[in-house]
Amino acid sequence: MNILEVKNLKVWDVHSEKNIIKNSSFHVESGSCLAIVGESGSGKSVTCRAIMRLNSSSLHQSGDILFKGENLNQLSEKELRKKRGKNLCMILQNGMSAFDPSCVVGVHLRETLAEHFDWNRNEMEVKMKSAMESVMLKNPTEIMNKYPHQLSGGMLQRIMIALAVVLEPDIIIADEPTTALDTISQFEVIEQFISLRNRMSCSIIFISHDLGVVRKIADEVLVMKDGDIVEKGTTDEVFSDAKHDYTKYLVSTRLALSNNFKRIMGEES
Ligand SMILES: Nc1ncnc2c1ncn2[C@@H]1O[C@H](COP(=O)(O)OP(=O)(O)OP(=O)(O)O)[C@@H](O)[C@H]1O
Predict the structure, then answer these.
(1) Residue with CA at minimum distance from ligand 1 atom 31
(2) How far apart, in whole angstroms, are the C-alpha atoms of residue 180 and residue 154?
(3) What is the pTM of this model?
(4) Which residue's alpha carbon is nearest to atom 29 within ligand 1?
(5) Was domain 2-264 assigned CATH 3.40.50.300?
(6) Residue 33, CB half-sphere, CA atoms under 13 Å: how many?
């Protein structure tokens, strides 16, 4: 069953009249992970933000975004707000931008949970603590009393994943969630995504430049170039039998890069 079906999505800039997403159609199966790959500027983030209807107001969009059969493109902003977080949850590149810098993270977490659940403060803290421990964050109480700038990028990403564990969304959209992290934190955050996938039955849309990670985490891959989907298929198909020249190029150059990286790190290629 498809949890999300995007049909004929078009996004354009009303000022420049540039077509950013030309005519995209794809689906996400329940419980599966779809990776979106493609060069910088190909339209990966705009596609994901269009699903959540979070693009800036100068970008207009048309088409159908069917979430469990309901067209998100036709909901009012108020109706959609109820779905963001609880049904569709977005984890961004930079954890710092997701948190309010003026309050400790516990306040932000409680405010988010209060929008969706009737839990009292104690119930919220118990659930958040257990979720934070499950993503290997030690001392959750201490962390909840810190401001975002007092925590590392990797910790903030893991707090976002812990929040997703508590919210139990149907779909998590992760837009290059490890780009801003150092190699060790990247590895830890990816491990948490894989464990999240295994524990929860949620679906994931995962944008990444790292084809090594995509190969590890995704069931299906969608390749974008200049606002078009040039290829889609299962991860095995795309990596072993790419049809489009651009995908072949991407797979050969990116895997060569990651093999080189492994060699530098002293690992087998
Ligand atoms: N608010 C905006 N107004 C106008 N153009 C935009 C806006 N946001 C994105 N774009 C343009 O849309 C195109 C696609 O951008 P997008 O951020 O989706 O690329 P991307 O594939 O996610 O790239 P990256 O991998 O670098 O994040 C780019 O040409 C970008 O300049």
Answers:
(1) 41
(2) 9
(3) 0.87
(4) 41
(5) yes
(6) 23
